[in-house]
UniProtKB/TrEMBL annotation:
Keyword S-adenosyl-L-methionine carried by entry: yes
Pfam families: PHD (PF00628), SET (PF00856)
Record field: catalytic activity: L-lysyl(27)-[histone H3] + S-adenosyl-L-methionine = N(6)-methyl-L-lysyl(27)-[histone H3] + S-adenosyl-L-homocysteine + H(+)
Domain of life assignment: Eukaryota
GO molecular function, one term: zinc ion binding
Coiled coil: none
InterPro entries: ATXR5/ATXR6, SET_dom, SET_dom_sf, Zinc_finger_PHD-type_CS, Znf_FYVE_PHD, Znf_PHD, Znf_PHD-finger, Znf_RING/FYVE/PHD
UniProt keyword list: Chromatin regulator, Metal-binding, Methyltransferase, Nucleus, S-adenosyl-L-methionine, Transferase, Zinc, Zinc-finger
Organism whose genome encodes this protein: Quillaja saponaria
Name used for this protein in its record: [histone H3]-lysine(27) N-methyltransferase
Chief location category: nucleus
Keyword Zinc-finger: yes
Amino acid sequence: MAPASSPAAAQRLIRFRSRTQAPCRPSLPASPRRKKYKLLSEIMEKARFAVVERDDYNDVTCEQCGSGERADELLLCDKCDKGFHMKCVRPIVVRIPIGSWLCPKCLGERRVRSFSQKKIIDFFRIQKCTDKKDKCSSQQDARKRRKRSAPLVVQKRRRRLLPFIPTEDHSQRLKQMGSLASALTALHLEFSDDLTYLPEMAPKSANQAKFEDGGMQVLSKEDTETLEHCRVMCKRGECPPLVVVFDSCEGFTVEADGPIKDMTIIAEYTGDVDYLKNREHDDCDSMMTLLLAIDPSKSLVICPDKRGNIARFINGINNYTPGGRKKQNCKCVRYNVNGECRVILVATRDIAKGERLYYDYNGYEHEYPTHHFI
């Protein structure tokens, strides 16, 4: 039997083995590389709330008024640890905030953005109706909705000109044409339903809408077709429902021989085309502006003193009387028709049978004297 070893010898043996033979242990995975820690100053600069609290806050004063009174109203910023009275800070704090609070400087002056339509809908949680049952039940309701939503100017611009409706009675139509013929004969005028260009006056090449100062409104394709349709009816002897009558005060004037709807073409103003500079001293009271050119020497007028149609006898209103404009039921409008200037008389409201026709003679830039009009 081997002699028992002493405790000191056993301890030396264990220490020797620990230095020479490492115990078998399972291999551990390589530890990840330690990250470099940031400095405390860098963390405090970027931290939202990094306040080192003080032991004593008895010396805290308001940064705005400098007073330390009303301690119950002093608010401490959770970032800069400065004090502010609830009524001194802007915007004023009505009640003590719950949770963290930042002063305006730490919070930053954020730009106030206005609510957009989408934000308003999201804010109030307004739900748009997508159910098909809530849509317009008929096409008429859809047109009404579009009409209400569209601007008034667009609605007025979209109105189309209407062709006149000739009188169905053939004998009455002959009376209308006879009244016009009698009036033309009495004034020694020739009938002309179109603009006339004579050699000693302005040529046709001078009548171009592109010469208009500021531009001229273009007659749409649909309205141009309506105007041509009226011209074709007049050539067939289907004249507008108008009759020329003689009045002791107004002279020859025109009355409606049947109902006329609003926006109906009454007639086209016709006559001889001449330069305005050649007619500055003309005593004709029925001249109509045709073209106001950039160069005044190229401005044109329509002179129905020798040739014209029923538009020659429609009277202008007296702008100097209070009730003058109340009588106005039609207007003269200058249009660009296929590059040429034309003047068209259009009804501005519904005209009843027997009502006389009046238009504003001062519809353009020049103020013509109308005090002698009835």
